[in-house]
Amino acid sequence: MRKVLAAPGTYIQHEGALSALANECEGLGASKAYLIVDSFIDGVYRDDIVSSFETAGMPYVYAVFGGECSDEEITKHREALDGSDIVFGIGGGKSIDTAKAVGYYAGGLDVAIVPTAASSDAPCSRLSVIYTPDGQFDHYLPLVSNPTAVIMDVELIAKAPIRLLVSGLGDAFATYYEAAACVRSNATTMVGGHPTHAAFAMAKLCHELVTGEGAKAVAAVRKGARTPAVESVIEANTLLSGLGFESSGLAAAHAIHNGLTALAGTHQYLHGEKVAYGTLAQLVLDNQPLDVLKKEYRFFRTVGLPTTLEGIGIGDATDEDLLKVGELACAPEDTMGNMPFEVTPSDVAAALRAVDELNGIID
């Protein structure tokens, strides 16, 4: 049996990292950097980013991310590289995925990922999620290798909007349950092998840190404070969840997320928020015991993750809408097939409705 564990070349987590990017760039042996910067980060931290390269005398190209990780956006940046030998993705999940895709299509350039929030597990993976220009899920783009480096600025992340950290908790929360499903079904993972013991152990540790430290981290970040719990959750949301999902596998939770993107009401909600609701639906599909559901619903409420359809923008969804979500979630190219039992579109629609109803039953 072929087992594969994939990981970034280097994971770095410390305060002040955003102001030292040129030093990291030099350490990676690069001579010119192409910087893809999220528009919000550009407006707030441009001087910190640019001064690092100016002070070091490191050539760079600075480009503001257009908003969607689409084929059109990727092509735009690939055509503007101008001799750069490393691509930096600085910002949220979609700007990060764009940087990874640009490096891939440019012939395997080094890629350094600088998340400005611990809002998803995208940074460490060898995967980009491609959307249409209007925000609907299009396809997964498997890459040849993981990022050369992932650089986390703890101080910056602690000051990011609380909703981003909570979204990361939602994405990371799914990791263990999806990994467990893939282990049960002996699924092939995102990196083309079967789960290793190490990857599944990381998925379990991820869950322990998310549920054990999540509420404390949320309380601290609400005040812009950096505490040990915040540092633990940053690592869980980013490194452990990233390695856990990629090398253990995805299942119903992310497939349902992808289906939910077909409903316009969900577009204003973050990836991790929709994945979180999809995880509750996976627990329903798996007929998990009521005690498990009670524990997880209570955790969601404590940290602010959605437990109702209204909480992801589709409180008025019809049965036909939810069936459409189910049809997309059960598409052959998605990850629903990694569940250890058959799941139909109508099963998904029923689970989505049941999650909403359970919210009124579980105290």
TrEMBL record:
SUPFAM superfamilies in UniProt: Dehydroquinate synthase-like
Positions bound to NAD(+): 93-97, 116-119, 125, 127, 131
Cofactor: Zn(2+)
GO function terms (MF aspect): glycerol dehydrogenase (NAD+) activity; metal ion binding
This protein's pathway: Polyol metabolism; glycerol fermentation; glycerone phosphate from glycerol (oxidative route): step 1/2
Record protein name field: Glycerol dehydrogenase
Cofactor-binding details, from the entry: Binds 1 zinc ion per subunit.
Ranges for domain Alcohol dehydrogenase iron-type/glycerol dehydrogenase GldA: 8-153
Residues reported to bind glycerol: 121, 171, 254, 271
Enzyme superclass (EC): oxidoreductase
Domain of life from the UniProt record: Bacteria
NCBIfam families linked: PRK09423.1
InterPro entries for this protein: ADH_Fe/GldA, ADH_Fe_CS, Glycerol_DH
Reactions mediated catalytically: glycerol + NAD(+) = dihydroxyacetone + NADH + H(+)
EC number: 1.1.1.6
Protein family membership: Belongs to the iron-containing alcohol dehydrogenase family.
Annotated keywords: Metal-binding, NAD, Oxidoreductase, Zinc
